[in-house]
Specification:
Length: 117
């Protein structure tokens, strides 16, 4: 079911990206020099869809980093709780190994039999 939903979302996105790539095949110049528009010192010339895809990829990367950074509080809390749980498990195991079985004079009767008391 999740595979179907993923394909249902990704297929239209792929179609839009293909349409953008086909419609924007002409070369454009990306100038990184704000002072000289006639002869820029640093510029890139490539098909426009490359710049569009690069912008989308950059946005996905920045969003992923921001999401990862925002979840740092929860990852730290999970580490602390995991250490605490391990400490409690070790203490419980230590107490179990220290506890000795107690011997009493009476034993339980087998099912279907009466005790001698």
């Amino acid at each position: 079911m999740t595979r179907f939903l993923k394909n249902l979302v990704l297929l239209p996105i792929a179609l839009v990206l293909i349409a953008l790539a086909v419609a924007n095949r002409h070369d454009v110049r990306l100038s990184l020099d704000p002072f000289s528009s006639a002869e820029p010192a640093v510029s890139l010339q490539a098909p426009m869809f490359w710049f569009l895809f690069a912008a989308v990829a950059f946005g996905v990367f920045v969003g992923g980093v921001a999401s990862w950074a925002a979840q740092g509080k929860w990852r730290k809390e999970a580490r602390v709780k995991r250490r605490e749980a391990n400490r409690w498990h070790q203490e419980a195991d230590k107490l179990k190994s220290q506890q000795q079985p107690r011997k009493t004079g009476t034993a339980l009767a087998a099912p279907g039999q009466r005790s001698a008391a």
